[in-house]
Amino acid sequence: MGNSALKAHLETAQKTGVFQLTGKGLTEFPEDLQKLTSNLRTIDLSNNKIELLPPLIGKFSFLKSLALNNNKLTALPEELCKLKKLETLHLNGNHLRQLPAAFGQLSALKTLSLSGNQLRTVPTQLSGLRHLDVVDLSKNQIQNVPDSVGELQAIELNLNQNQISQISVQISHCPRLKVLRLEENCLELSMLPQSILSDSQISLLAVEGNLFEIKKLRELEGYDKYMERFTATKKKFA
């Protein structure tokens, strides 16, 4: 991509606060963007070949939305965690194995998409994020859901298409969790905490494609309580 084209994009971005350059085969984060650290609210560099997010990402202090779907990122810089206004972070289809230690400092984060990466567990850093609404961790290599999940503030947690065989009973303590997606994992029925049904806020539990028949779920203690929440929620949205 030529310099003049990039320049045109930068000029537009300066006026609109939005820099979008997708599917252009970029191999690195455009250095020239640092001229716009105080302008940009949105950066979308999805569908490129970016391998590294440079530390300068931490300078975009007004950034609200960052999308880097379908790139080649293997790690994220700690500097990313300085983005105190960031509300939406889309990193689907990369090669991430973990999140930066300071990830819990992204205090404004509402939506986090990490589908199609190489995470092996639900990152404990997520428990510190107080405004999180939706977390998508589908299509990773997660095998267990740890105790720290009990402090997760999300309303929806998507863990579809992982390798989950164990879930901490703490998941039923999530204060705002309404939607839990666990489709196509490796769960035995005995490994599904019954408190999810009897004693949680969860009103939509999706567990198709595990190692048990769905009708067996209906025989569990607490299923009727779960159905009450499910029906009440359905009525609300009908």
Automatic annotation (TrEMBL):
<dbReference type="InterPro" id="IPR032675">
    <property type="entry name" value="LRR_dom_sf"/>
</dbReference>
<dbReference type="GO" id="GO:0005737">
    <property type="term" value="C:cytoplasm"/>
</dbReference>
<keyword id="KW-0433">Leucine-rich repeat</keyword>
<keyword id="KW-0677">Repeat</keyword>
<dbReference type="InterPro" id="IPR050216">
    <property type="entry name" value="LRR_domain-containing"/>
</dbReference>
<protein>
    <recommendedName>
        <fullName>Leucine-rich repeat-containing protein 57</fullName>
    </recommendedName>
</protein>
<dbReference type="InterPro" id="IPR003591">
    <property type="entry name" value="Leu-rich_rpt_typical-subtyp"/>
</dbReference>
<dbReference type="Pfam" id="PF00560">
    <property type="entry name" value="LRR_1"/>
</dbReference>
<dbReference type="Pfam" id="PF13855">
    <property type="entry name" value="LRR_8"/>
</dbReference>
<dbReference type="InterPro" id="IPR001611">
    <property type="entry name" value="Leu-rich_rpt"/>
</dbReference>
